[in-house]
Each structure stands twice: as C-alpha cells, then as structure tokens.
Design goal:
Distance between the termini: 22 Å
Radius of gyration: 23 Å
Order of helices and strands: HHHHHHHHHHHHHHHHHHHHHHHHHHHHH
Largest sheet: none
Shape: globular
Strand content: under 5%
Length: 549
C-alpha cells in the first residue's frame, strides 16, 4: 500500500496518547472482543465494509460501487441509515451495524421508509439541479444515440488503441447491460475518463444520460476531481462552481486543492463552504484531509487558515464523533503539529487505541527524531495490524534519516507481529506494507519473501508492481515476478485492471517503455472480457491510463 493511499485513509480513525508506556513489544495488548468489530474498517479494503456497502446500495442510500473502502460517502450513507433506523448516529462501521442491517434493515417496514427517503433525496437533487441555471439542462434526459463502432472497430482498436475508440467501445458495451443501476455505474466510469481527457462537454452529455438524479450530482463532483487530477485545474474549478449542493461542491473543491501545490483558487471557497455543511463530521474530515495534504507537501502558508477552520468547526460541534476527532489528530500529525496532535488524542482518551491516528503520531515523532517516543506510541496500539502499520512507518523514517540497520530491525519486529493478526486480508495488507519497506531498504529477496506469504493474488501482484515501478533499475526480477503473479489472478477483468494500474504507475514514475509494455498486457486481457458491464469498465480504465502514457 503506497504512502499516498495511506494518507487518504489516515484521517478516518483516532487514537489515545495520554501517557507513554515503556518501549518494547510486551507493552502491547490485544483488543478485547468488543473492539475487534471495528477492525474491518481499518484498511483500504475490508470485507465488512464491502458487505455494508452492498446493503446500503440495496437500501438506495449509497451510489456504489461496493469496493470495500471506507469512503466519506460510505460514512454519510451509514449515518443516513442510522438516522432512519433510530440508531446512534456516529457513522461507525462495525459488525453490530452489519447484523442490524441484515435483520431489521431488510424488514419490509424499513424498506418502505428507505424507499420514501430515496424519493425525497431524488426530489432534493431535482430541486437543486432545477434551481441552478448552470445545471438545469442536466434534467433534460434526451438519451442521445451512442456513437457506434464499425463491425471490426473493437479489434482494430485493440491493435492500435486510442482514447476515442476505447471510449466508443465502452459506450457500445453499455448497451449490453440490462440493469439500469449497473448501466449508470458504467457511465460514471466513462464520464470520469472523458473528464480526465479534458472533454467536459462530452462528460456533461453523458451525465444527462444517468437515470438517477442523485448520481448526476455525484458525477459532477467526480468529473471535477478527474479534471483536477489530470491537471485541468481551471476547468475543474469552473465545473465545481456549478455544483448546486454544498456537500458535493465541497468534495470537488477538496479534490482540486489536494492535486496541486498551489491550492489557493480552491482553498478560500472551500474553507468558507465547510461551516455551511449539515454533516458537521464530514466537514471536519474534509478540513483534516486538506491539512494532512498540505503537511505532506510541506506547504505551510495555508496551514494557519485550515487550522482556524478546524478549531471553529470543533467549537461549534457539541459531540464530535471519534472518527472526526481522529481525522483531526492524524492531520495534525501529518503537518508535524506535535502538541496539537497529542492534545487531540488526549481528548479522545483510551478508547481509540485500535485506530490509525496513533500510527500517524508515531511516524510524526520519528520524523522529529523522537525515536523512543515513536516506538512507545506504536506499542500502545492493541490491534497488531496497526502496530505493523506504525512500525513500518517508523522504519521508513529511519531509513530516510540514514539509519538502515534501525529500519531493518523494526521491519523484523513487524514480521513477528503479523503472526498475531486474525483477519486474512488484514494480514495480507500488513505483509504488503512490510514488503514495500524491505524493497526501500534494497532487500528485494526479503520483500519477495513477504509477498509470497500474501494469500490474495491480486494484492500480491499489486505490491510487486509497486516495487517494480519504484525499483526497476536495481532489480530486474521485480517486473517478471509481477507479470507472473498477475497471470495467476483468476478473473480476466482483475488481471486487466492490475496490468492497467501498473501501467499508470510506470507512467507516473517516468518509465514510459515499461508503461507501454504493461498497457499492452492489459489490452491482451481485455480481449477475453465479454460481459458488457466489465467490458465498459475496463475500456474506460484503459482510456484513462492511455491519457497518462
């Protein structure tokens, strides 16, 4: 898992750090059963989160996809479910919530309430779109005819892939999708790809074809984010300004602000918008994500304004959730605001010793040269998978500080802790983190040894590609190992997706020849995909990757 991925999700959890214990592995204790239920939400992918998302999609509270990642949209949907079900509204994803959703949540009475809520949300979306001159035309769902490929068009495109033919192939594949909600999801992929190519008019034309008006608002936000990620910041900002709902506009502005070192065009309107959001926890999490990004980039001139906004949001929030407080603590840690981070953790108390924020604080202490305190912070973590996360972060800092022996010792401790992890995918994620650490230390065989223990073929291949993209010059085996591992993935779609994302990583690493080689492998796998649903999605992804390479 890359540092960038960890940074995105670090703001979702909190930790307690009132008193530092003595260093050493013995200081850790395992989480009691009542704390283990939240572990499924601690990583980028979780079966618990995926099950919750599938149910939220079934209840029409979540637009999908059910990708197993605890996104802000997922938490917003959870809070909506809790509100309608008369539960404590905290956005927490755990097994108790899953059980409630599988039993009470599927009862007919609740389905009726959810249907009513869905209709209300659609009408709110309609009203918002109708109320803005910039979006009123999106209600004119005239469903233009798709641009058809000639009979041999798809094969010709595979022989010489171009963005236009890949997108046309994706559009044609949508016609083979029977379910309208699946068609909408596939259209969202195409819209993002068109935006990544800077084609705002084409993206808006497809936004008009979405059947769910709530997804129209979501797709406007996603298109703005894709434009920003592709470097079209002026177009992204202009599109974001047209989004009529505060929550989606705020998420779009956040995407713009976090894709450039100069966040000033989006920063001021975003900070002004956050106090207006009804979802106060969501507003705090957005501000925390922004602060963490500025800290990671080393941009200090924006920190004071963001800090004041966070404090104001907290002061006007009677009982902020531990998720929001954890997001703030992690953001302070990313920005190296030591006293503020520890003060926030003290406010949360001991209840959050199974969360990522404490791992972020451990890394912060290591960056500040306070190694013994950093290790003590890691030792406080009860969940072994989080202990691994903290220790690998400290090891990375130690390596950058020119202390490879210390870093190697920490990675060995992390390897021992993996044996205590109960959930298979959590163990796989920890092994992947350790493997990346060994690769950074120029110990490829130790990295490969940890990857060999990963049970998830997709995650193992993904980790090998990350290592290959970062170390192709010093270990030629990484590339061939990554190809072989990807070929073992059972699903053609998953193989094609893994190759496509690897091509993107090589492109971002400025290794164009390798990027093209892996892209060709992705095209090879795509030829075997016949389902309209999967074909539309992979062709959209290939178009997005081709834009980069």
């Amino acid at each position: 898992m890359t540092p960038k991925h960890l940074a995105v999700f670090a703001g979702l959890f909190a930790a307690g750090l009132a008193i530092w214990p003595s260093t050493g592995q013995a200081a850790r204790t395992f989480a009691p059963a009542e704390h283990r239920s939240a572990r499924g939400s601690l990583f980028e992918w979780s079966p618990l989160i995926e099950q919750l998302q599938r149910l939220l999609v079934e209840f029409d509270l979540f637009a999908g996809p059910a990708a197993g990642r605890l996104t802000p949209e997922t938490q917003q949907a959870i809070r909506a479910y809790q509100t309608q079900s008369g539960l404590t509204v905290n956005g927490v994803a755990n097994e108790a919530l899953l059980k409630h959703m599988e039993t009470v949540g599927r009862a007919e009475t609740l389905k009726k309430r959810l249907a009513q809520a869905r209709n209300e949300q659609v009408e709110k979306a309609r009203s918002a779109l109708q109320g803005s001159a910039a979006t009123r035309d999106l209600l004119e769902n005239d469903r233009p005819l798709l641009a058809a490929l000639p009979p041999d068009g798809t094969e010709a495109c595979f022989r010489n892939p171009e963005i236009d033919c890949l997108l046309k192939g994706a559009m044609a594949a949508i016609e083979d999708i029977g379910r309208q909600d699946y068609r909408d999801w596939a259209l969202r992929d195409i819209i993002r790809a068109q935006a990544a190519a800077g084609r705002v008019s084409a993206a808006r034309a497809n936004i008009k074809r979405l059947s769910d008006l709530r997804l129209v608002l979501v797709s406007l936000r996603e298109a703005a984010a894709s434009l920003a990620e592709a470097g079209y910041h002026a177009k992204a900002f202009h599109l974001a300004e047209t989004i009529p709902t505060p929550w989606n506009r705020a998420r779009a502005l956040l995407a713009i602000a976090t894709t450039t070192s100069d966040a000033s065009p989006a920063l001021e309107p975003l900070l002004a918008l956050l106090p207006q959001l009804e979802d106060r926890s969501g507003a705090i999490e957005i501000a925390a994500t922004l602060l963490a990004d500025r800290g990671e980039r080393g941009v200090t001139e924006d920190t004071a304004a963001i800090f004041r906004t966070i404090r104001s949001l907290l002061d006007n929030y009677r009982e902020p959730s531990w998720i929001a407080l954890g997001a703030v603590a992690a953001a302070y840690a990313h920005a190296d605001l030591s006293s503020e981070a520890i003060e926030m953790l003290d406010q949360i108390g001991d209840a959050s010793r199974d969360q990522i924020a404490l791992a972020e604080v451990a890394a912060m202490l290591a960056r500040q040269g306070r190694l013994s305190e950093a290790i003590a912070a890691a030792d406080r973590l009860r969940a072994p998978q989080l202990y691994v996360l903290a220790v690998t972060k400290i090891a990375a800092v130690e390596y950058r500080r020119g202390r490879p022996a210390s870093a190697a010792g920490l990675l060995k401790q992390a390897e021992t802790a993996v044996l205590d992890i109960e959930r298979p995918f959590a163990a796989d994620t920890a092994l992947a983190q350790i493997a990346t650490g060994w690769a950074d230390l120029k110990e490829p065989e130790k990295a490969f040894g940890n990857i060999a223990k990963v049970k998830s073929a997709a995650l193992g291949a993904q980790t090998l590609w990350e290592i290959a993209a970062n170390s192709v010059a010093r270990d030629a085996n990484a590339f061939s190992r990554a190809v072989a591992a990807t070929d073992k993935i059972e699903s053609a779609f998953d193989r094609a997706t893994t190759f496509a994302r690897a091509a993107r990583d090589f492109s971002e690493a400025k290794i164009p020849m390798q990027a093209q080689r892996v892209f060709d492998l992705a095209v090879r796998e795509t030829k075997a995909i016949r389902s309209g649903w999967w074909r539309a999605r992979i062709l959209s992804l290939l178009a997005t990757v081709l834009i980069k390479i």
